[in-house]
Amino acid sequence: TELEQTVTTLQADQKDLTTRRQVLTDQQTEANRLLKQLTDKTKAYTEYRDVTQNDLDEIDRQIAEAAKKYTTTTTTTTTTKKHTTTKHGESAGTTASTTKKHTTTESKRLRLTYPVPSQTRITTAFHGYAGHSGCDFACASGSRVVAAESGTVIVSADLTNSDGSYRSYGRYIVIAHDKTDSVGNSVYTLYAHNSRRVVSAGTHVHRGQLIAYSGSTGNSTGPHCHFEVRIHGEVTSPLNYLP
């Protein structure tokens, strides 16, 4: 009958789809094996190409929700210098002095330092592969990861699977900075694949302060720090702000 033919066709299509999925899975596994082999040889560790748009959307949502919880303030510093001058005509031992105050305010312009002080060489650049949203700094596991600029930690979390294993960015941190870019846009930096996080959300950190130790949690071929700069939620090249 026509119904039986339809069912048979659907079953055949399902079997074909299952076969295609298995082929794609096998191809992805082989690609990951070769990538791991390459990065083990070069020590330029990076991410497997397994991150999906759903993964990226989830991270975007987490950052957007966290940003609503915290407000950042602009940090300024004031310094006062005293200059002592002697008036003409005063006798020896009688010194009249005047004090002048010079007040300077720290620039509000964003100026980043390297997130891994022991590794300032970028091993995989922004868009170094299709969709790569940051710069990778391959480094020994347990290397110090520091805040690239002062600001408030808005995310300090682990991305895990149902079995407890790490996925995507693994143990990651996001900082909302006190300073803006050149046109006043808010700036966030992200630090992924850490082995250990040492700051929690809501903590204010200073430029160069220890925030984590590097690792290879999540979607990672080996120990490195994946570093992102986000302007209004959009990723941009960290090279625009690093020394």
Identify the notable features of this structure and list them briefly.
243 residues, seven-stranded antiparallel β-sheet, alpha+beta, three-stranded antiparallel β-sheet, 10 strands, single chain, elongated, 2 helices
Protein model, in words:
By secondary structure, the protein is of the alpha+beta class. It contains two helices and ten strands, in the order ααββββββββββ. It has helices spanning 2-42, 53-69, and strands at 135-138, 144-146, 151-160, 166-177, 187-194, 196-197, 204-205, 210-213, 224-231, 234-236. Strands 1, 3, 4, 5, 7, 9 and 10 form a seven-stranded antiparallel sheet that branches. Strands 2-8-6 form a three-stranded antiparallel sheet, with no helix packed on it. The relative contact order is 0.18. The model is unreliable at 72-106 (pLDDT under 50).
